Amino acid sequence: MSVKYKRVLIKVSGEALAGEDRFGVNGDQLEKVARQIREIRDAGVEVGVVVGGGNFFRGRTGGSIDKPTADYMGMLATVMNGLALQDALLSVDCEAKLMTSIEIRDMAEGYARRKALDYLAEGKVVVFGGGTGSPFFTTDTTAALRAAEIGADVLLLAKNIDAVYSADPDIDPDAERYTELSYMDIIDRDLKVMDLTAATLCKDTGTKIYVFALAEEGNLMKVINGENVGTLIQ
Fold first, then answer.
1. Fewer beta carbons under 10 A from the terminal one: N or C of the chain?
2. What percent of the chain has pLDDT over 90?
3. CATH number of 19's domain
4. Would you say residue 2 lies in a domain?
5. pLDDT tens-digit profile of 108-163?
């Protein structure tokens, strides 16, 4: 079976790596994510991954920590998750390279677009850590940026919820589940799919977005095969 997408960028939140633990990295959850990524890599898909850091630290202001410093702390959290995911991928026999936007030479390779493209062509999964390298930008924006830079066919947003809804389905049982939306739909309706900067960047670069639940076993492969298991935004 031929896959629908040949090159993808997956945004994995820190919370997705924490699983039920809610903080830190859950080993079982990490392995499940790694195995799903290896499955699509083995199907011939070139895979980039942007990891969040919310399971360790979210950039926020408050107390004696100013916003830029808090954001840098959040970037370091994404590097921690990137290291964990890189090791998990290697443990399931899936070659992976962690590249960071902030230089940490003893732990990861500095991000360079051409080198990332070379790794993808070689069948290696490229994990992007460190956010954009600048404060005031979320990992959603990082994912939108890296997806455009590597020419991904689609940006896959791995969420804890299976699609985009008009409201929180856990609160509103009448919330409408969307199978397809436009970029302007998520901007105008304020659907909280991703932050406004990231959504606008995807719109400007024409990067398709697919929202789905990574926790469900085999869902990532279903998305790659073109099955309707989430919400397509284009």
1. N
2. 68
3. 3.40.1160.10
4. no
5. 999 999 999 999 999 999 999 999 999 999 999 999 999 999 999 999 998 878 89
Q: Please report the pLDDT score of residue 1 as a whole number.
A: 56
| CA-closest candidate to residue 186, choices 166, 214, 207 | 166
Taking the C-alpha atoms of residue 144 and residue 64, their distance in angstroms, rounded to an integer, is 31
Q: Residue 70: name the closest of 81, 58, 78 by CA.
A: 58
Q: Decide if pLDDT at 53 tops 60.
A: yes
* Strand spans (E) along 87-198: 96-100, 109-110, 125-129, 154-159, 164-165, 177-178, 180-181
1 inside domain: no
Q: Which structural domain range is residue 185 located in?
A: 7-233
Q: Judge whether 198 lies within some domain.
A: yes
Task: Give Dmax (Cα) for the chain.
Answer: 55
HSE-CB of 153 using CA atoms within 13 angstroms = 13
